[in-house]
Every structure is written in structure tokens, then in C-alpha cells.
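2024-03-11 09:14:02 INFO receiving multi-entity request
2024-03-11 09:14:02 INFO entity count = two
2024-03-11 09:14:03 INFO echoing inputs for audit
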Amino acid sequence: MRKALPKFGLNFFCLLVYIFLAAPIVVVLFSSLTTTEYIVFPPKGLTLRWYTELVNHPEFMQSFMLSIGVAFGTAIISTVIGTMSSIAVVRYQFRGKTAIMQLVGSPLLIPTVVFGVALLQFYSWIGLATSPAALVIGHIILTIPFVMRLVVASLVGFDRSIEQAAMNLGAGSMRVFFQITLPIIKSGVIAGAIFAFITSFDDLTVALFIVSTDVVTLPVRIFTYMQYQYDPIITSVSSIVILLTVVLMVVIERVLGVGKVFESKNE
Amino acid sequence: MSYLCLENVVKTFNKTEVVKKMNLEIKQGELVSFLGPSGCGKTTTLNMIAGFLEVDGGKIVVDGKPVHLLPPNKREMGMVFQNYALFPHMTVFENVAYGLKLRKVSKDEIKSRVAEALEMVRLTGYEKRYPRELSGGQQQRVSLARALVIKPKVLLLDEPLSNLDAKLRQEMREEIVDIQKRVGITTIFVTHDQEEALAISDRIAVMYEGRIEQLDTPVEIYNHPQTDFVSRFIGEVNQVQGKVVKTLNNQESLVSFYGYEQILTRHLAKNSVIDFYIRPEKIHISLEPNDGIVVKVDRKMFLGAKTRYILHNKENKHIIADIPNTVLNPDHVQEGKDVSIQWNSEDLLATKK
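2024-03-11 09:21:47 INFO inference complete, emitting structure
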């Protein structure tokens, strides 16, 4: 009995934390069902009107597809560069290694607003016009630190005699990388890719500086829409994004196991 | 005819030679141990043979062909690592099959050869397990099967037993020798454990500071160490000082050890003082006083089949003696009492520096 009470207390506390974390999401989901012309919680009445209304706003769909595309491109390139750099940084000694580490980590320290301004200045200086590619480049800079942190963590303590064993059995260096090294650090690499994807998909601050009228990512679209109108279509768009994220997480969980992906160390 | 040859092999790290002009010849099917303290160059030498380190000078020849310029994946050597180095993301079967797949062996043949290799290390039935599901000893056996299944020219074992507990270590080393003899593969076994080296080797290369101090059979290494280092490193020794009283003839000299005179069958210069080594188990204790060197018993330690006596003489020279309890009943020896010790002159290990 004496043990049961603290356990109940802990569970209750955890429940509170979960409610606190989930509440905003739930509010958005329910608000999207309101029959009113304005956003309200709890919703008044239930309707899917704001979802069908989206048909009249193709620009949301365009932005959504653009965001997905940019996030994909960012995740792939950033993961490839980040993984290769991590291997170089962890395994080799070279001049300026610490400087590179600091430089790569700096986007984590600099406020994204400052980074957005800098990027805008830089792009106009080199004459790079607004384009999905320009966004991807900006997001790569933003996300490489995340990828590198996760991949470096999975490389530290990597037993290199495993690679030697593969070489000893007759594998060349490419084979060793793809058949041995990569599968072993897989969890760090995938976690890095997911982080890069989410960071890019989620980014508003940097994108605000780079977007033009025809290249608008979803967060920017929602943000600008809200400055002029405040109707529940925002909540329906947000709900779709939330549902998609959930679906994505479930798929990853089924295929790889999220727990595994985010484990800092595989045995 | 030697199968594996090292000719003047040199390795330098940061301008220090860690392997100095090493020469070594190993016969086909022989098991040679590299034995030495850490930093003696044994692992470095092994890594050069495996190809993980480049040689900075000299040649390595296997079966008449120089291999020291080949990358490790072209050397056809099987290696077993200290920490097993199994592929954690592959099952036991996949681990063992890896080298065969790279050699484009047919699926059926892979199956039968893996099964054969696993049977050899007594792990049949473990094919579907992952390395993390195996004990240390089992992992090391998988590692051995993985190295042998490709039928390498040379088997290299890098301290394969040092992560196992004492009892398992003994079992595993017997198993390794057993398999090695059955397969008849030329093997190099790196270890810092002299008992291990003495127990399993055909020959031992005792290494120190990048050199082979002595390459000999275990019996020769133990009974006739050729250098000062080997005498001290292998087994335990007491250092005793002998003063040459007189030279009797060309082959014999009379030497005094702390007043105990003995004729040695060696020609030694008169009045010279020479260090000798004597192993603890070669010392005899006599309860009679004045029957050799008189010593006081500081302590006796019962070690099961034998008892270790820690003694010192008038000059405060400490001497350790191990006497089987069947030869001398430890109850008859009292701590603090005087006894005499002596030894056969042929048991003295001379030092050649």
C-alpha cells in the first residue's frame, strides 16, 4: 500500500504532462470542426465544411506539396553530406577540424531570424533568385548540424575492428561502408534524416525571408493567411498536417520502430 | 620450408621504431605465439601481416608470394579479434557466410560450408541468433568459424581469449588448438599471457621493444631462456648473485652464492660477480641448518598442491621457493625459523645480456 500511492502520484503527474503537451493539438483538431465563421474552442456544432472549403483554396495544396518536396530534398542531401562529414570528423585528424565542428554547430546557436536575414543578403549578393532550390540550400545549412550530431553520436564508440574484420574477409572499402558501417550507424542516420525533414517542413523563420509570391511554403502560407483572415480553414489545414505526421510516425514505427530510431546507441 | 616469412620488417610511429628489422619464419601448419608485454610490437606486427598497417620496410612473404603491398582484403588471411568484431546487424549464419558471399560461392555451397564451420565450433543450431544473444565464448567461436570458413592461408588470433573469464579461457584455448591441429592451418596467436602461450604453442616468439628476443619451443623458452628479458619475463625467477671463487679448469668454476659454494660447468673469470636466475620451484629447502644458504622464513603461503615460502638471507636477499606439499610438509616449517636452501647447479639460468 505504501508503495502504491507514490506510483499513483507519478502516473497522475505523467498524465498531466501528457495533457499539457497534447492539448494544443487537440484544440486545433476540434476547432476545425466548428460551424462558426471564426475559430472557437470548444467548437460550436460539428461540420466538415472547413475541409471541403479547402477545394476553393488550391494555394494551400500547392504550398503543401512544395513544403514536402523541399523537406525531402533537404533531408536527403543533408543526410548524405552530414553522414560523410561526421565520418571525416570522427575518424580523421586534420587541420581545422575543431573550426569545422564549431562552424557546423553555429546554426544551432545563431537565432534563425538572423540566419534568415544573412541568407537573404547572401542570395541577393550572389544573384540567386527565389526558388525551391534556394530554399533547400538554406535548409541544408540549417539541418546539417542536427544530422551531424546524431550521426557523430552513433559513430563515437564504433568498434572499427568490425570493419577490419570485413576487410579481412575480402570486402573492399565501398562494400565495407555500405554493408557494414552504414547498417550499424543506421539508427543515427535515419534519426538525422527525420530531424532534417521535420526541421525543414516546419521552418517559418528562414523561409519568410526567401519566399516570393510563387514560391510559398506551407508554414508561410498559413502565417500570411492568418494575418488577413482568421477563419477555421487554418485549423483544417493544420489538422491535415497533424494527421499526416501521425501517419508518418506510425509508418516509421511499423517499418523501423521509432524507439529504435531514436535510441542513442545500438548495441 | 617456411610458409610465412617476415624479412627485416620495420614499423615506425612518429619516428620511433616500434618494430625493428624483424625476421621470422613459420612453417606450414605451425602455431606460433607472439608473447610479450604491452607495447612490445606484437599486435603491430600482426596488423602488418593482416594488412591493416603498412610495413615501413622489409617484406612479408606467404607461400612464396610477397603480400606486404596487398590491401587486407586481398591477403586471404583469417583474423579473430580480441573483442570478436562480429557484425551486430547480421545473424550467426550471415556473419559466417559473409566471406563466402564475397567470394561468389554458390548458395548451396555456402549453406554446407557454414554448417560445417559451425559444427566445428560446436554452434550448430545457433544460425538464426544475433551476436548480442550469445555469450562471449560463443561469440568468439562464431568469430573463429567466420575466419576459418574462407579457408585462409594463415589464421591470425589477436588476444582472442583475453575478454573471457579464467575457466572459459582454458576451455577455449584447448578448443582453438584442437581445431587448429585438425584444420592444419598456419597460425599466429598474439597473447600477453605466458601460461596461454606455453600451453598451446608449437613455438613462441618472445617479443620485447620491437624485437624477437627468442623464438623457440615452450620447453626451451622456459628451461633455457637466452636473454635476460626472457628469463625474467617467462615464469617467475629469483635473482641470485654468484661470486667466482676460482676457475678450476676450462669447463668448471667454483662459485660462491652467499657463502654456499657450488661447482658450475662453465668457464668464468675469477673474482667476477655474476647474476643468475633460479626458479622458485627449483629451490630445495632443508630443515637442517648449514645445508646450503641459511635463510629465515618470513612467510609461508599454502597454495593447494604446493606451498610458497618467502625467505631472506643474512644479506637481506629475498628468495621465493615453491615446494610441493608431498615433498615437504608445510607444518614442519615455522615462520621466523632458520632453514637452508640449495639448488642444482644445472637449474641456474645464466644471463646473457
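2024-03-11 09:21:48 INFO post-check: The CA atoms of residues 92 and 127 of chain B lie 5 Å apart.
2024-03-11 09:21:48 INFO post-check: Chain B touches chain A at residues 50-52, 71-79, 81-83, 85-89, 98-99, 102-103, 132, 143, 146-147, 150 (CB under 8 Å).
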